[in-house]
Amino acid sequence: MRIIAINDREALDRIKQRSSGELEKAIEGAKIIISGVKKRGNGAVFEFSAKFDNFELSEKNMEFSDSEIRKACKNVDKKLLNAMKVSIGRIKKFSGMQMPKEMKLRENGIEIRQIVRPIERVGCYIPAGNYPLPSSVLMTVVPAKCAGVKEIIVCTPPKAGDAVIAAAKLAGANRIFRVGGAQAIAAMAYGTESIPKVDKIVGPGNIYVTAAKKLLYGDVGIDFLAGPSEVVIYAERGNETYIAADMLAQAEHDKYASAIFVTTSVKLANKVSREVEIQLKKLAKNSIAAQSIENYGAIILAKNRSDAVAFINDFAPEHLELFEESILGKISNAGAIFLGEFTCEAAGDYAMGPSHVLPTMQASKFRSGISVLDFVKMPSVQKLSASGLRKLRPVITALADAESLSAHKRSVEVRKC
Question: Which one, out of 235, 263, 363, 410, has a CA that is 20 to 30 A from the CA of 272?
Fold first, then answer.
């Protein structure tokens, strides 16, 4: 596996920009799909499902029936069902910790409040490309449910499988549709004869799903544009077997996924490089991991700890594993951080509690992963008594004068108090 010097900008930029060109191509295709769904509703969804998913949709089979959901739950192994229930419990605990509180402040006739209101209807997109992802159901539906969302819609490709359907039922989804791809995003954004229009769409997806979300932002709320998955692991000392295993675990998500190990130790860099090759041979059938490691995997050799931290904050990874916990205070940008050699990123994918739907492609520089905060609004409530308005009158009129907004000023002056 290649070892890159931290000052090799050309190699590092290639990793950062790994799918930007593909997204631009996908946007052109997504425009056609979105236009079709907006104009023709269900008819366009049926057409694109046949074309892209090789599945004949109709109004009768578009939504999973109660009997189909019960059958899916029955088909899922009890061990998996129990695992999902444990995961749901942990997500609920963390979501409860994050739930914002209502607040009130009164002083001299001035009252300001923050109230909390859930979004009314949310759409959760659950991909089923390389693998079915029941865990992504839990990580989107459960926080929405905890936030008090009244109606949660799940859209997932026809081949998603029983585990995804069972997860949606356990997590609390209200309706589940067998619709995937950009057509599902457009259907939830605009509504069709069968799929209701939602207020916000969340969840990961392929590059066409991402393109559709980008194009539809404004017509509907979205969480963020999720690119290929990423992990950066930092260690000065550590077990090369653990490090290599975590790199490959991330690499198997997508051929564009990036798995990066950063270290100041030449000795450890060489050990990890050899160990990745050893483990790749054991995963011989996993061509996705091999492609990802070959094209976008790297070991970055930093001159010192400060350079390593600077790289991490600039790369702003989706997942960051820190074997050296002492640098946590210097980390500004990461979607989720995993501390210590036993906290493998896969634990966060499935069982820790925080959502694994996280910002990629440097988006962690300006936002965090999915949480209950994505499903609530916090409008302010403001109230003035006569004495409160008297107190603020000079402030309001001075600012109105500065902005030449005379009607603003007059709205205060007409109130005799």
Answer: 363
Residue 160 Cα distances to 76, 239, 286, 315, angstroms = 13, 36, 20, 32
Please answer whether residues 75 and 169 qualify as being in contact, where contact means their C-beta atoms are separated by less than 8 angstroms: no
- Return left, alpha or beta for 69; rule: phi > 0 is left, psi -120 to 50 is alpha, else beta: alpha
The single residue of 318, 321, 345, 356 carrying the catalytic annotation is 318
Looking at the domain assignment, is residue 242 inside a domain?
A: yes
Are the C-beta atoms of residues 345 and 369 closer than 8 Å to each other?
Answer: no
Q: At 385, list the tokens.
A: 């008594």
Active-site annotation holds for 318: yes
Q: Residue 241's domain spans which residues?
A: 3-17+228-353
356 catalytic? Reply is no
- Residue (of 138, 176, 172) closest to 158 by Cα position: 176
Instruction: Assess whether 98 and 8 both reside in one domain.
Output: no
pLDDT tens-digit profile, the chain (417 residues)? 778 877 787 777 777 776 666 788 899 999 999 999 999 999 999 999 999 999 999 999 999 999 999 999 999 999 999 999 999 999 999 999 999 999 999 999 999 999 999 999 999 999 987 778 999 999 999 999 999 999 999 999 999 999 999 999 999 999 999 999 999 999 999 999 999 999 999 999 989 999 999 999 999 999 998 888 999 999 999 999 999 999 999 999 888 889 999 999 999 999 999 999 999 988 876 688 888 888 889 999 999 999 999 999 999 999 999 999 999 999 999 999 999 999 999 999 999 999 999 999 899 999 999 999 999 999 999 999 999 999 999 999 999 999 999 999 999 999 988
CATH number, domain at 126? Answer: 3.40.50.1980
Residues 341 and 397 both lie in one domain: no
The DSSP symbol for 325 reads G
Catalytic residue (choose from 319, 321, 345, 356): 319
Contact 147, 118 (CB under 8 A): yes
Burial class of residue 63 (count of CB atoms within 10 Å of its CB; 0-12, 13-18, 19+):
middle
